[in-house]
Specification:
Elements: H1 11-30, H2 38-44, H3 65-78, E1 82-86, H4 92-100, E2 105-110, H5 123-126, H6 136-139, E3 147-152, E4 167-172, H7 178-191, E5 192-200, H8 208-217, E6 223-225, E7 232-235, H9 240-243
Parallel strand pairs: 1-2, 1-4, 2-3, 4-5
Antiparallel strand pairs: 5-7, 6-7
Length: 245
């Protein structure tokens, strides 16, 4: 059943917003993953970054501005030369990373629209709309020499071995079911180069698969929630950022 919509500014809409904020706050308070220390967050966000044109920002299903700022800033602080994104959608995040990394190689993989997924999906994945326009990086130029390579395939079956121990930043934003998050995370750790980082999206109360898998993972790996976003980050132990935590 579709969620009932109320007129903007109505009492019912305001109450719904307040309820959502309360539930989000309760989720964060109960989370086993601690927030990223403010000193680390300030260090990462101290660099200048370029964001996509305004018409491409805040489209449904894309990374919000706060998340894009963190990802682009982290990539620059890491001086990433190779990036891999799992889950392309419109290509907005790929474009942002490539635009901010001179000469870097940004790879992104997504399942073809007509392909059947290997694992079961969450309901939010099954009803996720396809992009309304071509990839953002195909419609906007990329100064600075950064490049984006689009790969097609189910991330559960895709061959990531050519990038083993070779990627500075992996961004996991694929399907949200437990099996996909486990599989994508395993592949992300296998690709991670010394000194790099892994970032996951959609860690919040409405993505239970992401929440369960990352919550369990936090018992073995030092993960951090990024305040103001739905991102979780892991720094490879030899990373300068890891040593400063």
């Amino acid at each position: 059943m579709a969620k009932k919509e109320y007129p903007p500014g109505s009492l019912r809409q305001r109450l719904r917003i307040l309820k959502g904020q309360y539930l989000n706050h309760r989720f964060e308070r109960a989370s086993p993953i601690p927030p990223l220390p403010s000193a680390m967050r300030d260090e990462i966000l101290s660099v200048e970054v370029v964001l996509p044109p305004a018409r491409l920002l805040m489209a449904p299903g894309t990374q919000p501005t706060e998340g894009l700022l963190f990802l682009a800033s982290l990539a620059k602080v890491l001086q990433a030369k190779t990036v891999f994104e799992i889950g392309t959608f419109t290509g907005l995040t790929s474009w942002t990373l490539a635009r901010n990394l001179d000469g870097a190689e940004v790879n992104t993989v997504d399942i073809p629209p007509d392909a059947a997924p290997t694992f079961e999906l969450e309901s939010s994945d099954e009803f996720h709309p396809l992009p309304a326009e071509p990839m953002a990086y195909e419609t906007v130029s990329l100064p600075g020499g950064g490049s984006v390579t689009q790969h097609w395939g189910d991330s559960a079956m895709f061959d990531f071995t050519p990038w083993t121990d070779a990627v500075d930043l992996i961004y996991v934003d694929g399907a949200h079911s437990d099996d996909y998050v486990r599989s994508d995370s395993k592949n992300a750790f296998a690709m991670l180069r010394g000194g790099g980082a892994v970032v996951w999206d959609d860690y919040w109360r409405l993505s239970p698969g992401v929440s369960r898998v990352l919550g369990a993972m936090s018992k073995e790996h030092p993960l951090y929630r990024v305040p103001g976003t739905r991102l979780v980050v892991f720094f490879e132990p030899s990373s300068r950022l890891s040593r400063s935590s």
